[in-house]
Structures are given as C-alpha cells and as structure tokens.
Amino acid sequence: MITAKDFGADFLWGASISAPQNEGAALEDGRGLSVWDVFSRRVAAIRGGAKPTVASDFYHRYKDDLLLAKALGFSSFRFSISWSRILPAGTGKINQAGIKFYHAVIDECLLLGLTPVVTLYHWDLPQALQKEGGWANHHILKWFARYVKICVQEFSPKVQHWIIINEPFAFTSLGYMTGFHAPGKMSIQSFYLAAHHTALCTAEAARIIRQINSNAIIGSSFSFSETHPHRNQPADLRAADKADLLLNRFFLEPALGMGFPMMDGFPVIEKFHLFNRSWRFQEAMKCDLDFVGFQNYFPVTVRHNPLIPYLGTSEVSAKSRKVPHTLLGWEINAPSCYRMLRRVADYPGVKKIIITEGGCAEKESLLPGKVADPLRINYFQQYLQAVLQAKKEGVAIDGYFVWTLTDNFEWAYGFTARFGLVRVDFDTQLRTIKDSGYWFRNFLGGTGDR
Ligand code: BGC
Prior knowledge:
The protein has about 450 residues and is an alpha/beta fold.
C-alpha cells in the first residue's frame, strides 16, 4: 500500500472547499447576492429546491472545519473568496466585514500550520454584475481586475498560493450556454463572449498578482476529461476530437499563449477564429502561471449525434456501458487520470501541476457511530496510485487536494450528492468523520485509531 510519504516531504496535501458551496451566511454582514443565490430561486433549477443560503455554514464554523482538516493530517487548505462578500455590488464600496472574515480564516489556517491556497473565483459572480451581462460584458475585465487587486493587496503575503479561476469551461458552458448552472443563460453568443473574457481575465489577474507580490505562487484550475469514441468509426472519432478540444484544450491552450484551439467545420469553435487572428489577443490571453491546477473527475465516451445543436456530439453514459461509476454516473477510471496528467505535463509551457481537486460522490451508509463510504476509499486508492505513477515517471506534481473536506452544496444537485470526507447533517450541521476521512488520515501518517 502506498502512503503520503511516497510522494516526498514537500508534497502539499490539501482539503478544499469553495465559498458558494460551504460558507452560507448569504445574507449576513453586508454580503451581496451572488448568481447562485438568485439562480437557486428558480423553479426546478436545483434538485430538491435546495438553496446555498446556509450550505455547510463554514462562515460560522470555520474554526471547527479547519481543525478537522488539521486532525485528518492535511498540510494545506484550499478555499475561495466570495466576490460579493468583498464587494457586495461587484464594484464600488468594499465590505470591511468580508475582508475581516477572510483574514480570520487565513490567520486560523496559519495558526494550525495549514498553507492557505486561495481561489479568487469559484463561480459565484455578484448578481449586481450579472444584471449588466456578467461574464458576457467586456467590462468584466475592469471589474475582475479591481476585485483581484483588492484581494491580493489585502491578503498577501499571508497568502502566497493563488488559484485565479476554478474550471473556466464548466462555468462558461454550463452557466452561459446550456443554462444548467447559474446564471442560467442559454445562448451561444453569451458563451462565446464569456469564454473570451474569462481567458483574458485569467491572464490579467496573473499579471496583477505578480505585480503586487513577486513571490506569489500563481495557478488557475482547469478541468480535464479524457475523451473516447463510442465506436471506432469516423463520425464517433470526430465527436471524440470535438469533445477533447472543448474539455481539455479550450482554456488551457490560450493560457499557454497558443490561442484558442481550432477545428475546421466545428461551428462553435470557428467563431473563436476572430480572437486568434489578432496577435494582441493571443498575447493578452497568455498567462504567466507557476502551476496548472489539474481537476479530473472522469473520462467521457461520446458519439456523433446530429440532433445536438452546435456540438453534434453526445455522451454515452458510464451506466449504459456498464463500467464502474460514482453516484453521479461519473466513470471511475484512474488510468485515464494518469494519461491526462502525462498529456498536460507534455505542453512545453506547463511548469508544474497541482491537483487542485479530486474526489467522488457516493451513496453512503449511516451505521451507528460510523459513516461507511467504501467506494470513495477505493476511488482514492486507485487515483492516488495513478498520480504517484505519473510523478515517479517525472511529471512535476506538487500537491493533491481532496474535493472536499465536508459535504456541501453541490450546485444543481443541491444537497443530494455528497463528496466530503466529513459528513454534514444539513438539519443540525453535525459533522461526522466518514470512513474515507479516517482512511485519509492513516494515508497521511495518522495513527489508525478511530
Ligand atoms: C468543482 C466543484 C464541484 C466538483 C464536483 C468541480 O467541477 O470545482 O465545485 O463540487 O467539481 O462536482
């Protein structure tokens, strides 16, 4: 059995959460509404009609949760800042109570010996900015730059590790194209604009952070999913290439100075030619990153499907293919994570990788004094083995962050999909360490006692 020691003494082992999924206190201490507060009011937008208003109450329980992270043996803690807690209207007046809260969280991390790793944007745009078009409005460049500047000036040098944006493809596609996530827009034009602005904002934020704190360790987190054709025939092979372009290359390549990836006869993508044609845009999207935040939850198998507008591609579920999968139907396939790590590391511009999220949702069993989650333990065993293999073969991987410390608000799935090492009873906020939490503690060098 491998243990954390096999990864080397400097490896960062972290637990992660995000503001919109954990903090709650949505209406407290001057915080402005975010797009998720408003989106969750829509009928049938979120499973079970759940809202992120209280979530797992990290705002009031951060000391307990940080202590849990410490007790499980982690050396690092990743959390995100809520833009609308710092700037309730997105721009304009700073909310000092928000600043104070994040100082308190950071100080508590430092006190416990947890390296704080701060995400600047984890999908919770201030609603006031969404009213102006949000990420589809080019003013976002100015709005985001100011927000980033405030955070980095305020929290440096206590915080050295910054993650600029969490999974740009997820929030721009689900939020602006399919409407499955906040703000619930369904427009190819909005996606097109939001994606371009996101790429520009990421690079600009990196420049701002570097300027304020030359010692900062700067990254941004991208999602990756190996893509497979359903059948070995030209139409499905092409569908897999299209999915690969969107899921794996679309935001990483502009950040590496390569411009948006192109593919002839793929209408969504052809629109992006415009941005690539301008050398200035390519330069402006190039991002000076110390590390790529790598997030890989599943590979996908796709087939040609002319009924799907713009993409002409649809997924063939893991369930229908009868392969191992999680509660959300996400295929469990650690070798595909290994191959994606190798592939990302092969880009000449990638200096280092930090796995900024990894984990799975499962239907757990509540037993007396115990939460049994064997699938999750098995998942970590397989995936950590895959990460170690890549590392041993020379891939520069500096850390692994578990998604997530405690159960939380899982976006459109509300509270029905649990990813935590620690179970949260959302009625009482009682925390119970799951078997996977104890497993992780042993893996990180704990005693093995329960
Ligand atoms: C996101 C998390 C989310 C997790 C599981 C990632 O895409 O960054 O916020 O909870 O996946 O869905």
